[in-house]
């Protein structure tokens, strides 16, 4: 029963996301398509983090680092294309066929290095070592003077180009991001149900027992870390295209914190939950001030975090399995 | 250049649709930074801006205006989301308020592409002053570099032969040091880039003492500057090596937070509370009466921005996007009484204005900047020649 | 050169002592209660605000110092009763989320109450100025006082933990919580006590830091990350580890800022060198943590745990 309920819910959500641009255009609020794009892109990153936190028990506090790698790959290529200069002998490019695969490859590489070292630790120490890597990358981006340092850089010529698809068109870009999101979400769903997924679940429960029956836990964890890194890199590359702007702020530790929050808020280890968490978190961040103003609470509208904080605390205290648990309550 | 062409084209299309939606009120979007330690900058820009509107009873230049204010939380993505909402749902015709140089590269191009006016009361990074300048982009306060160029001129005028320079390791910090060096005649004996958000400066202060320079120029904005100033004084350095600062490092809030340690520190600014012109006196009195606190330089910038808009609205009778050329040339004429005195726009729509030397003194238990004289008359920024506008 | 080296070393130790003041409470709460409290930095901020406000009213540094610590203790007590207590049995993640939300709430509340402008707080007359240390180094008196405060806190903590009954319970609880519970100790009351004591150290650090730094909203957050680094390098739950971790971080950070530019300057042109070295010194403590954790995955002084 729960499973069909679940499936129906997901199909409903997908249908809603598919027709969203038409609804928004019809109601004269097509500017919200951009907000919807942002939600979808952020949700990719949240789902990728859920693979780590929810399925492998690896609490990464530096996940935003890979957002940065993806975004900077796109940004740097665009920068050199605009300036018509080269980077270590290679020209820049605005083509999505170059930028996106390269962004994914580089974030995989970054995740491989970070994961290989970080996975030597466990628990809280893993949280802190991933945080360190995130911070190191943040400061690296800040010191890239050529690419705007802390201020970041604009993509002067707009978004990446693709054959047949104009990403500068808002609706096309939304569907482009949505397609990636659906693809990645479907892949993750398949992954966690596969044999590999069961290995991860076993690692989460008891890593030592697994080692004793001859399964290499380290290797499995490294694999999932790289997959999650690629997911975040994808989100970063899309995000750079969305804002047409890249800055170190993408890799700041508070961004990693935001990602963790949406995963927990939505319900970890559910894949759907983090998506819901993303939607709630970003929509509240954007519209809570407006809602509060609408209610005539002008002072609180400016200080909306004063309301937002307690809402989050209530969710943690009383909705133990996050939003997912509210929608699909366990009957036992 | 390519960007400008695209912008112009998109602008034409959008302004055509905009003109159709004619409203009696002129809507102004203000995206500013109200949260975090730097929140007081945005707050003062907003309050200064609102004061000008309140003086006219909800109008600017005899035209009713509606100002929408949102906090960008210093996140570029938030800035973008708000900008899109302002431009499309609310159809604001004028965008203003951005404080920081990492928000403006997101908000400004969107605004310009939509064929609206972007009038910045604070941040004016070099990219919009030179090659990528735009006819609908106006900077009311200064071009970022000018803040530090004036400090370099100030230091040279005071006869310092060498200097130790210090800024955070980020773009604005590097621009600051480049700007200072551009007009400083002496030698640079030490150049140090500190960490962002650094709290402890003992190591840097020891290096300054070891280098033995004649003066120190530091551009550590906000809390970092307060940290440095307190620790510098406690190390007994103020007496040994004087500081020469740019305006943001010596605003009234910093003076109040640091207190006596700032006495004798010299700085340069385009505005000061004791400038003797009518507009300034009215502004000071009005601000104190309305908000019960003295205005910072940011408040003066917000106020001037509103006054500039008022002067242009007056000329066009409230038409903004319906009369792009008219409103643009009305802005460019800068026909308003700036609280800083003489003011004109350069070819790149950035100010030509005087810069003043100031020194911190104690007056009736309060610490204030006192104007000492003019450092640079009709100073223009270094990028105007790269801009193709005229 | 050697005198400058000594002075910078002293600067490093002083920064370490200051970091220890903040980290001590963090490691107690983290180690014994097994709670990640991101809002520790907010308690630090409350300490500094209380200090500045009480100092402004009374005009006395000592009175402000003595009064601001209980203010933080009260705030911490409320936070413990209302929120932290419910998080004991939860995942670290829930704690991160709830205490992060607490940061938002406290920061925004402080802004609403006291505005966005930094508050004034200066060094008292009796602690201002410099002293000349043996060897001819002049050093700000207030920084010497902070080293003293750090040592005093370390001593006090050592006495509490090694010599008192509560300390014994804390030690036992850090190692094995269930056993202590079964022995009939009121663990709730002990938890509240430890949280409040940890917060008092944070508040004391905030109050002492006020005269040296800008008293503003968000002042604790930058420090928080640094203190987590100290605690983790040292080994969670170990006071000795926190002390060692803090001094290591302080010295590495300070020496990096002090000498890396000169060393790089011998190989590169000055502008490039100062740019790169600033990047390097920002990264140095994180690099330090990575290196420590790669070779000692549970920190330098791991506390034995039977979980």
What's the SSE blueprint?
The complex is a heterotrimer of chains A (332), B (390) and C (307).
Chain A (H helix, E strand, L loop, with lengths): L1 H25 L5 H25 L7 H20 L2 E2 L2 E2 L4 H23 L4 H20 L10 E2 L15 H24 L1 H11 L1 H6 L4 H27 L1 E2 L6 H14 L5 H23 L3 H5 L2 H14 L3 H6 L5
Antiparallel strand pairs in A: 1-2, 3-4
Helix pairs in contact in A: 1-6, 2-6, 2-9, 2-10, 2-11, 3-4, 3-5, 3-9, 4-9, 6-9, 7-9, 10-11
Chain B lengths: L1 H19 L5 E7 L6 H17 L3 E2 L2 E9 L4 H14 L4 E3 L7 H10 L3 E4 L16 E3 L4 H14 L4 E7 L2 H13 L3 E8 L7 H10 L3 E4 L3 H13 L2 H4 L2 E4 L5 H7 L7 E4 L8 H14 L5 H20 L7 H10 L9 E3 L5 E13 L2 E14 L11
Helix pairs in contact in B: 2-11, 2-12, 3-4, 5-6, 12-13
Chain C lengths: L1 H31 L7 H19 L2 H22 L9 H23 L15 E3 L5 E3 H23 L1 H11 L1 H6 L4 H23 L9 H16 L4 H27 L4 H26 L12
Features:
heterotrimer; A: 332 residues; mainly alpha; two-stranded antiparallel ribbon; two-stranded antiparallel sheet; globular; C: 307 residues; 11 helices
Instruction: Spell out the helices and strands of chain B N to C.
Output: HEHEEHEHEEHEHEHEHHEHEHHHEEE
Percent helix among the residues of chain B? 40-55%
Tell me the major beta sheet of chain A: 2 strands, antiparallel
Distance between the termini of chain B: 15 Å
In DSSP terms (H or I, runs of 4 or more residues), the helix count of chain B works out at: 13
Give the biggest beta sheet of chain B.
Answer: 8 strands, mixed
Task: List the uncertain runs of chain A.
Answer: none
Description:
By secondary structure, chain A is an all-alpha fold. Chain A has a domain at 31-252. Chain A has helices spanning 2-26, 32-56, 64-83, 96-118, 123-142, 170-193, 195-205, 207-212, 217-243, 253-266, 272-294, 298-302, 305-318, 322-327, and strands spanning 86-87, 90-91, 153-154, 245-246. In chain A, the strands form two sheets. A two-stranded antiparallel sheet of chain A has the order 1-2. Chain A is globular. In chain B, a hairpin with a 5-residue loop joins β12 and β13. Chain B has 13 helices and 14 strands. Chain B is of the alpha/beta class and 390 residues long. Chain B has two domains: 2-142 and 276-345, 3-Layer(aba) Sandwich (Rossmann fold); 145-269 and 355-379, 3-Layer(aba) Sandwich (Rossmann fold), CATH 3.40.50. Chain C has helices at 2-32, 40-58, 61-82, 92-114, 141-163, 165-175, 177-182, 187-209, 219-234, 239-265, 270-295; strands spanning 130-132, 138-140. Chains in contact: A-B, A-C, B-C. The interface between A and C is large, with 42 and 44 residues.
